[in-house]
Design goal:
The protein contains three helices and no strands. The protein is mainly α. The chain is rod-shaped.
Length: 77
C-alpha cells in the first residue's frame, strides 16, 4: 500500500510539473482530479473484491468458566 502511495505521489508531481505552464491553479486542479480518480478506482476495487463477513463472537474465557460453574451448580442441586 505504501509503495503505491509513493508511486502515485510521484505521478502527481509529474502532472504538477507538466501543467505548471498553465498556472499554479490549473496545475493544482489537474493533480486534484488525478487524486480523485485514484480514490474512485480504490473505492471500486474495494467494493468489487473486498468482502467483509458478518461479525461473530464467542464467549470469553471468563464467561465460559462462569457457564461451567453454573452447569456444575445446577447438576449438584
Amino acid at each position: 500500500m505504501h509503495l503505491s502511495i509513493a508511486f502515485f505521489l510521484g505521478f502527481a508531481e509529474v502532472i504538477s510539473a507538466h501543467t505548471l505552464e498553465h498556472g499554479k491553479r490549473s496545475s493544482y486542479k489537474a493533480v486534484f482530479w488525478f487524486e480523485v480518480a485514484l480514490a474512485i478506482v480504490a473505492l471500486v476495487i474495494m467494493l468489487v473484491w473486498v468482502r467483509v463477513d458478518k461479525a461473530k463472537s464467542d464467549l470469553t474465557a471468563d464467561e465460559k468458566e462462569m457457564e461451567r460453574e453454573r452447569s456444575r451448580l445446577q447438576v449438584n442441586e
